[in-house]
């Protein structure tokens, strides 16, 4: 599918390095579902165990490309996806290319289920724009994308149920009705404007007195503002991340 013009932007070219940002949407208007799915498709990659091929659901996960510095790309995923993966693991981008990721260069963020991975490539891969998870409203539509079982990309629509630690426990922060399964951990959560507002972590049951059974099964994720706040601890220069506030800044 060809992208509509508002979706893809060449932000800057530095020393021959092109930085492609998906959807610098500042209109406040919701995008069509097919455009949102395309944004998610281009920015959400797969992670496998170190063999570089699919070796079981338990080794599979998803990762979202968020920054580039020269030929170094940075991806955001869950800490539990990349923890104890051996000598290396493999990240597969949308073009099918396999990239070796060194766990020694992977940064696990403190007290939250997030990790920043890095890989090297001279190819141009689109990056996603980060939104503002603090502005989310209960009941609004959000979209989840991840690699189901490490084999099939799955995109689906849901509603935000809660965004407080009171419901989701300290290491999460977002609860939603989107469908998820193994392999989708580390997948992207988008708002209706196509901005990354969180990273999917798990599926769980939380207590809710308004439900007939007193509980509800939900998706659990980490708000993207957590990454923005902790970026320096992940070895990630905040200037490399494009947020709603930084998207309008001039590039050099």
UniProtKB/TrEMBL annotation:
The keyword Protease applies. Keywords: Hydrolase, Protease. SUPFAM superfamilies: Trypsin-like serine proteases. GO terms for biological process: proteolysis. InterPro entries: Peptidase_S1_PA, Peptidase_S1_PA_chymotrypsin. GO terms for molecular function: peptidase activity. Gene3D superfamilies: Trypsin-like serine proteases (2.40.10.10). It comes from the Bacteria. This is Trypsin-like serine protease with C-terminal PDZ domain.
């Amino acid at each position: 599918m060809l992208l509509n013009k508002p979706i893809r932007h060449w932000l800057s070219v530095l020393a021959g390095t092109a930085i492609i940002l998906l959807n610098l949407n500042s209109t406040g208007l919701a995008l069509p579902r097919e455009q949102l799915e395309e944004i998610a498709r281009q920015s959400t990659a797969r992670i496998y165990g170190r063999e570089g091929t699919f070796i079981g659901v338990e080794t599979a996960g998803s990762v979202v490309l968020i920054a580039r510095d020269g030929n170094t790309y940075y991806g955001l995923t869950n800490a539990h996806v990349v923890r104890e993966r051996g000598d290396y693991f493999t990240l597969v981008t949308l073009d099918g290319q396999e990239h070796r990721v060194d766990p020694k260069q992977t940064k696990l963020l403190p007290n939250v289920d997030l990790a920043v991975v890095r890989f090297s490539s001279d190819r141009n891969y689109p990056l996603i724009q980060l939104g503002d998870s603090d502005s989310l409203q209960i009941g609004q539509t959000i979209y989840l994308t991840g690699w189901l079982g490490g084999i099939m990309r799955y995109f689906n629509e849901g509603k935000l149920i809660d965004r407080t630690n009171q419901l989701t426990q300290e290491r999460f922060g977002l609860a939603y009705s989107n469908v998820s399964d193994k392999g989708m951990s580390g997948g992207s959560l988008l708002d209706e404007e196509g901005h990354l507002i969180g990273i999917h972590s798990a599926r769980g049951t939380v207590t809710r007195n308004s439900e007939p059974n007193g509980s509800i099964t939900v998706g659990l994720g980490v708000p993207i503002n957590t990454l923005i706040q902790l970026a320096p601890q992940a070895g990630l220069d905040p200037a490399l991340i494009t947020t709603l506030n930084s998207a309008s800044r001039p590039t050099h």
